[in-house]
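Researcher: Let's run the pair from yesterday's discussion. Sequence first, then tokens, for each.
Model: Starting with the first of the pair.
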Amino acid sequence: MGKLTTAIKNLIIINVIFFVAAQYVMPQLQSILALYFPENEHFGFWQFVTHMFMHANFMHILFNMYALWAFGSPLEQMWGSKKFLFFYFSAGLGAAFIYTGVNYFQFNGIYNQLVNAGISSSDVHQLLTTGSYNTDILKVVSEQKLTELYHIYNTPAVGASGAIYGVLVAFGMSFPNAKLALIFFPVPIAAKYFIPVLIGLDLFSGVTGFSLFSSGGGVAHFAHVGGAIIGFIMMKYWQKNQFKRWD
């Protein structure tokens, strides 16, 4: 985990360029390149790729790029740049599709509940676009669900975390006995135990909305889980077919 390999160096440079541009030069890039809910007017199919190069703030990109370097470098050294990039973008795309699918399922569950209760489409549209609603709606669904509906519709996903969770899984399967530790839990733990627990916490937070380390809001937990799932599937396939390296 020392050498800055070619593909990872280029990914970090591109991410930093996009971050600086979106934060200080062209703030409108966020609404163009972040991944919006498909029903939102800002949605575009290119966002399934471009959201991986957008980040919310400095700490977000710092942690993601550190994880990319720390866990991705040994994989790129082992696989080569082409195979690593294929894996990275496949995990990121898979994460985005799974995250969007979960959001679509949750959104339609609440939306159909409102429509079936006789709430007019104009009232639902007002809720989605302004966040305001007639209090009579609370007789149908809870305020928490209305807030969830609004945030699914309006809050875009940004960051390389989905792809990086795929990288984490690949690292854990390739180097299961490597010792890892976190700042808030500095005791080294083997990757084969550490990474499944980390993914399990994300799944728990995604299902319950409760996070052990934060408020649970603003984190695309199902994108993390999605990236991990795609990473695991690809690794199992490659291990079975002994797909070692692309030249």
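Model: Moving on to the second of the pair.
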Amino acid sequence: MTLLIGERYRPLLAQSLAAQGLAVFWLPDNAAVDPRLAGHADLSVFVSGRRAVVAERVYPYIVNFLTNRGYSVDRSSRQGPVYPDDVGLCVCRTGKYTIYDPETADPAVLAMLDGVPVAVRQGYARCAAAVVDDHSIITADAGISRAAKNAGMDVLDIDTGHIALDGYDTGFIGGASFLFNNNNVYFTGTLDEHPDKENIIRFIAEHGKKSVFLTDRPIFDIGGAVAV
């Protein structure tokens, strides 16, 4: 499998990702969204099974890569620089559950949703929830936590903040991490400055996973990574 990650984060992550043996397709900036978020993969690509929905501005750069790997690829029908127009593709799939805002999800994404639906009122659903396994997430969003627990998911609640995102007061835990091959949970940086560090590492270990820290920087939000 290959990870889709924003090109702007290549100088920070390329060496450590290669050392982990992870293949990466570096996505160009998505000019349709806020420049501070233009490198976020979770605003540019949504994947479910062998189908993908790709942001209009990124589509020409990746459509051949995806189709050559057997994906059916649609273009997003709407996207803009101001919330909620930027979050149409930011839907969180755990494998068993799909966490999404029905009011903001792109129609092309809604048409291909599968799994147990978990409706929330957070358009940045994928960024706000770190996936640990098919039924487990980590989040600082109270609404996502409540809906996920009601649906039968295992949730670790953490404090808001303590995650860097240039131009914003804070980023999100899902945007600063990713699960790959249902094995390790990778973090962009360390959790040393996060008050829930021990709880996060313990929760991941209790679900049979290992926490891997890709850099020595404090954890930072890149819009996650999309595995294809």
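Researcher: Give me one sentence on the second I can quote.
Model: The chain has six helices and 15 strands.
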